[in-house]
Amino acid sequence: MKKTVMIVGMMTLASVQIVHANEGHDMSGHEMKQHAQHMAPDGMKHEHQKMDMASGMFLEKKEVDGYTVSFHIMPAKDGMGHGGSHNLMVKVEQDGKALTDVLINSKVFHPNNSSESKMLMKMGDWYMAGYDLGHAGKHGIMILFKTADGKKHKASVYYTEVK
Questions:
Q1: Considering only Cβ atoms within 10 Å of each terminal Cβ, which end of the chain, N or C, has fewer?
Q2: Closest C-alpha among 41, 11, 26, 10 to residue 109
């Protein structure tokens, strides 16, 4: 019971804190669009976006505070949407080993300036949530993850649905 209360409390805290994940920067959909046009240095090492246009799969890795964060997005197969047209999957690694004891909250800023937040659920070495990303335009995807040491880390990518 205590463990359940603690997990629910941490998830609630993570949900509230995702709004403040940019430490003083309101990342509304409008600002995400402006930021996408001229990415300012953010202290993260970025790998180039990798997208297989035939399958629509997207993979991008970021180095954040000594962790490697992999963002993987792909269209959901019928019956496997987990709440959306696309599956967002995130893996957090340290020294090449996947961390399986992190809490991850995500927020998507859609091209129409709307946004939504979801907790990611653990699936093997990956964490996952479904989002409707099937409409054309650039989506801002931000995560806030909490590691076992209690520290919070953030990372973000942009995903463009090509129609």
A1: N
A2: 26
